[in-house]
Every structure is written in C-alpha cells, then in structure tokens.
Specification:
40 strands; mainly beta; 524 residues
Length: 524
C-alpha cells in the first residue's frame, strides 16, 4: 500500500507541472529589478600625467552616477573622499582633474535613477609625476649654469640634478619668481633636473644639455666663414664649433652645394642647440666623423648621398646626432668600399625628403658595420620606392657582426609607393641580428614587407610597434610578395592622429598611442 501511495503523489505532481507550463498566460517575458545594476567594465586611465579618465558601460534607465575619489588609497575607501561629483550618462567617460602627481587614487561609481541606488563599482590607479617645468630657454643655458623656470607661486622645495647628484634648495624668492639659477655644472653634459615638493613628490622633470665652453681642441667657425676651408685646415681630431648661419660647401664639383672629403678624424657641432647652422653640401667620409646639432641640406648638390664612404679601410665610428638631414637624391649614406665601420650611430634626427633614386636609404654594398644604432629619429617622405636598410653580403671583403637596432622612431611615408622593395634588405650571410622595437610606422607599402631574403635574420626582435595605413608589415596585404619571411603579427594598428603631418608636425593626438610610448619621443 505504501508504494502505491507514493507513485500516485509523483504522478499527480508531474501532471500539475505539465499543466502549469502549458498555460500561455503564465509565460515570463520580462524581469523587473528593484535596484540599478552596478556599473561594469570600469577603467581608470592616467591622462596628461595627473588627470584620470574614468569610463564604464552605461545601463538603461540610469539618469546619473555618483563618483567618489579617495587619495592615498588602494580600494579601501577609508575616511572622507577627496572629491565627489555627479556625472550624467552623456558625460562618460569623465576626466577627473586637479589630482596630485605620484599618488594612489581609488574611484567608486554608483548608478542612480528610478530605482534603488546600485552597489558601488571600483577602480584604482596611480598618477604620474607632475610636469610644471617650462622649456629651458636657449639663452639661459650656459656652459656651467642654467636657469630653470616653472609657474610663479607654485610650491617647490628642492631641485635635484643628475649626474653629480646636485641638490638645490628652492627659496621663497625662487617660488615667487618661478625660477632658480643652478651653477657649478659641467659643460656639454646632459642633465636631468627634478623639481620636488617637501614631501618628496615630483613636480617636474626636465632634461637639458649645458652649452659649450671652447676647449683647446675646438675651433669656432664664425657665421659667413668658408666651411670647406675650415674642414680642410682643421688639425686631426679637432672639433669645429659652428655658429648659426648658412654655409655652402664649395669644391671643384660645384661652387655651392658640392662635396667635401673628411680625410682625418673630425667633429662638427653647431654652437646652439635650437639654432643650427645650415650646411648645403655632401660629405665624403674617409675617417672617423661626428656631426651634432647641424642642418645638412642637399638642395643643389650633384645628386649623390648625404654621406658617401669613399675609401677602403676601418673606421671606429660614424655618428650623426641631433641634426636635420634633408633633400638628397640617392640616399642617406653609401658604403660602397671595402670598409668596416665598427659603430654607426644615427640618433635624435629629423630626416626628410631623401628620394633614394638609384640607391637605398642606408646603403651598404661592398662594406659593412658591426653595429647600426638607429634611434629616436623621425623619417618622412623618404625611400618611397627603395629599401630602407640594405646590407649586401661582402663578408669576403670585411669581417662584421651586423647588429641592427631600430628603436623609438617615427616613420611617415617611407616605402609608400608600393614598390617591390622591403624595410630590411640584409644579406650578410655570416650572421645578422635585427631589433625593431617601439616604432610608429605610418604610410608604408613595401610589397616585400619587412624582409624576403633567406639570409636576413629569421628571428628578429619585434616588440611594442604601432602601425597605421601600412601594408605587409603586420600581415600580408593584397600586394604582398609571396617571399616575405616574417610579419610583426603582435603589432598594434592605431591612428596616431598626427597634428599636421603635411607640415612636418607629428605630434601624437591619440591617447592610446601615447600610452604605448612609441615613436620619436619628441612628438609625445
């Protein structure tokens, strides 16, 4: 009897359940909640050092959001908020301003409207160091002193300079004036100055290079002088310090815009950091050579490269830094002799309108190098239909290590004409290493992409590069040659939103690109 009774109950419950499910009037079509949902996908991003951009997903029916900001806090939300604000949906993302640098901030957001307030959603971020230093004026940089400026009245306690660990105590008069004069510096030295509060938090960081105090091995070249004669007459190992002005290289090849041979170790340096001398002409390089703070203009030259290695042998270094190079027909340099250059340094330059008609941009044919360091440069409107870096296999002529480092450069319309060339045409069979990192590449369309030769480094170092309007670098495009050997598949595709690329202003406007800290640092 007991078993029959239990079976009857189960059957009755099942029948009731089926009957309930079959009633159309009981169908659930919506769910009402008495409380707003908490904001989701909350993100806090630092913008412009001490501002924080808050973003989150918007929810239906929410009319506003409460936002609370807690200073010196990591998601504990103890004490009183440093800031509170009400934000409407159309104000999201919202930027929180007036924050202190180098400080942990916690944020919590609550949805309001029509129902009970939501629970809080949270985020945390640490602001960057403040930057209230003004740019250092050229005329206020001397060989052994500098005047550093910031907005008058802004609090500061110390200025620390390195190298040397020089500590300057900021006075009340300095704060009122927004300026301090630092003495006892070393000429021609790169300094970093840190302005700090009394609690040690940074208020500003700036770098500068002290000016020139002429040494016994320096020769001052006055404006209007004959630069060719100065180069010919300079003793071996001396440095020409050139005043601002325009200079034309005059040789038997041309009365103006010709070429001059560097036949002995020599340095040429512009006197001013922000007012470079302009030299119109080309250089034939046969000895160690350094060029710094100079503008080289190829307008009116005979169509060759800016720098042409014209003698066999061995050079310790070739260095072009902090300069502007423009308007050359065949290329930047040409290494077409059995010459080993141990170290090539091309850094902190702006290079434009290097056509590369009949030659490649950095072109090594019969010679080689151990290290090529190409860093912090801007290259625009150049090598549109030729290789960017070429190094033929001449290991039978010279012994070289062929280490190529391309880092933190901005490339604009390099290889843009869709020609059958590539970024790296490196055929040094005895071994080569390529590093391509932190670069911003815009407007490149090489059909052979980065590389297509079997001798080129098959495992290059590729990291943190950003691309926009490029073909065959991140992946194969419609024009890709089947022989391409590698891509930067991890590269990020983003529009940098240059301020005015047509006028040579490559200031980055896209915060997401700024966050990645890519390209020539001068444009960030």
């Amino acid at each position: 009897m007991k078993k029959i009774f239990l079976k009857s109950m189960v059957f009755g419950l099942a029948t009731l359940a089926l009957a309930s499910c079959s009633e159309p009037g009981d169908e659930i079509t919506s769910v009402e909640y008495s409380r707003n949902f908490s904001p989701t996908s909350v993100e806090a991003k630092v913008r412009n050092r001490t501002n924080v951009e808050l973003s989150w997903n918007l929810a239906e029916g929410v009319t506003s959001y409460n936002v609370e900001v807690y200073a010196n806090d990591v998601l504990t939300f103890a004490g009183t908020p440093a800031k509170t604000l009400s934000v409407t949906p159309d104000q999201v993302p919202v930027t929180i301003t007036g924050l202190e640098g180098e400080t942990d901030y916690s944020f919590r957001i609550q949805a309001i409207g029509g129902k009970a307030d939501s629970k809080w959603s949270t985020a945390w971020v640490k602001t960057d160091a403040e930057q209230i230093f003004k740019n250092v004026k050229e005329e206020e940089i001397k060989g052994s002193s500098v005047i550093l400026r910031w907005p008058a009245g802004e609090e500061a306690a110390t200025i620390t300079l390195t190298p040397g660990d020089i500590v300057y105590n900021v006075t009340a008069a300095d704060i009122a004036a927004g300026a301090a004069t630092i003495t006892g510096l070393t000429p021609e030295t790169n300094y970093t100055a840190v302005l700090a509060r009394s609690n040690g938090k940074t208020r500003g960081v700036i770098t500068f290079k002290t000016g020139i105090d002429l040494a016994d091995t320096d020769i001052l070249v006055k404006a209007g002088s004959d630069i060719s004669e100065a180069i010919k007459n300079a003793p071996e190992g001396y440095r020409l310090v050139v005043e601002p002005g325009e200079y034309g290289i005059a040789t038997e090849e041309a009365s103006h815009g010709g070429s001059i041979t560097i036949s002995k170790p020599l340095s040429i340096k512009g006197l001013r950091q922000n007012d470079h001398p302009v030299i119109k002409g080309r250089f034939k390089v046969e000895a160690d050579f350094e060029l710094d703070q100079v503008t080289i203009d190829g307008t009116g030259t005979d169509g060759g490269q800016a720098f042409d290695f014209t003698a066999e042998g061995e050079l310790d270094y070739f260095s072009i830094t902090n300069s502007e190079i423009s308007n050359f027909t065949k290329g930047f340099y040409y290494l077409n002799k059995a010459t080993l250059v141990k170290e090539i340094t091309i850094e902190n330059n702006i290079i434009t309108n290097i056509e590369c008609s009949g030659g490649d941009f950095l072109d090594a044919r019969k010679g080689g190098f151990n290290t090529l360091s190409f860093k912090n440069n801007t290259v625009a409107e150049s090598a549109k239909s030729r290789d960017f870096i070429r190094m033929d296999d001449n290991s039978g002529n010279v012994t070289a290590a062929a280490n190529i480092i391309v880092d933190h450069n901005t490339f604009y319309n390099v290889g843009s004409d869709g020609a059958n060339y590539r970024f790296f045409y490196v055929r040094w069979k005895s071994g080569n290493k390529i590093t391509f990192t932190n670069n911003l590449v815009v407007g490149t369309n090489y059909k052979r992409g980065f590389a297509n030769n079997s001798a080129t480094d098959k495992e290059p170092t590729l990291d943190n590069n950003v691309y926009f309007n490029t073909e065959n670098l991140v992946s194969a495009g419609a024009s890709a040659d089947a022989t391409i050997i590698w891509f930067d598949a991890a590269g990020t595709v983003l529009d940098p939103q240059f301020k005015d690329a047509a006028k040579g202003d490559f200031t980055v406007g896209n915060d997401n690109v700024k966050d990645k800290k890519v390209g020539d640092p001068r444009w960030m």
